Model the fold of this input.
Amino acid sequence: MVFCVFFLIFIGLNLMRKVLLLLIPSFFVLIAEAQNFTRPGDWKKYRKEIFITGGTSNFLGDLGGRDQIGKDYSPVDLELSQTKTAFGLGYRYKLDTWINVTAKFNYLIVKGDDALTQEPYRNNRNLNFKSNIFELAGRVEIGYQSSKTGNRYGIKRTLNRRHKANAHAFFVFAGVGGFYYNPKGRGPNGKYIKLMPLRTEGQGLEGGPKKYTNYSVCIPLGLFYKCTINKQWSVGVEVAWRKTFTDYIDDVGTSYYDSTALATNYGPLSALMADPSKGLIYGATSPDASGVAAQRGDRQKDSYVSLEITVGYIIKQKRKRARLRSKF
Done:
C-alpha cells in the first residue's frame, strides 16, 4: 500500500516536472513579447508632428487638357507636360490612434495651354495661363495606423531586435481652406501678363459677369501613406484633389465678350488676350445668328491636384516629473 502511494507521488512529480519544463520557456517568451509591444497608451506621447512636402501639381479646368473634349474633374484630362511644382508645410495632432487634425500651407504652380492639345476647338481657342496658388487649409484625417513594436527598455543587443518593425499608417482626409491665385497669360512679346485687370470677359460691362476676386474657398480631399521610423521620423506620400468655388483660376469663365467693347473700355490688349484664337474654325468665337455669345469655357468650377512626398518629425511629449511630498 505504502509502495503504491510513493509510486503515484513519483509519477505525479515527474509529470509536473515535464509540464514545468514545457511551460517555463513559453512563459519567458511571452514576457519578452509583452515587453516588445508598445503599451496601449504609448501613442499619446507622440501626438504632435510637423512635416514638409514636395512634389507636383496639375490643373483641371477649361484650358489645356488631352486631345479630346474636356471631362470635368477627371484625371483622364490631365496634360502631363504641364505638371508643375508643389511645396507644403504642415502640423498634425493625433486625437486618437485612428483620427488626426491637420493644418497645412501649400504653394503650388498650375498651368494650362490650348496649343498643346489636338482637340480642334480647344486648339483653335489658343488660350493659355499660369498661376501661383497660396493655400491654407485644415483637414480631418481618418484611417489606420499599426502599432510600432520594440523593446520597452531600449535594450538594443537582444534577440528581440527583430521585432522592431516600422509603424505604417494609411489615412483618408477631407477639409476646408482658402487660397490666393493670380492668373497670367502669355502676351504677344512672350512675357506673362496679369489677366484679372484686363477683364477679358467684359467684367463690369453691360451683360458681362461680375469682377472676380483673387481669393476663393477650396475643399481638399485625398489620402496619404506614411512609414514612421524610430518613432520620431516619418516618410510617406500624399495625393490631394481640391474642389474650388471659382471658375477663374485660368481667367476663363463662360462666354466671349464683344472685342470692340473690350478694346474701347479696357484697351486693345484686353481684346487680344480675350480672343487670341487661330481662326481655323469659322465663327467659333463670334455670337450666333440670335446674338448669343460664343462659348469660351464651361460653367464647371476649376480644380487642381497634387502628388507629394512627405517627411515628418514627431515631437515626443516629455514625461512629467513626479513631485516628492514630505510626510512631515
Observations:
- Confidence is low (pLDDT under 50) at residues 1-37, 158-163.
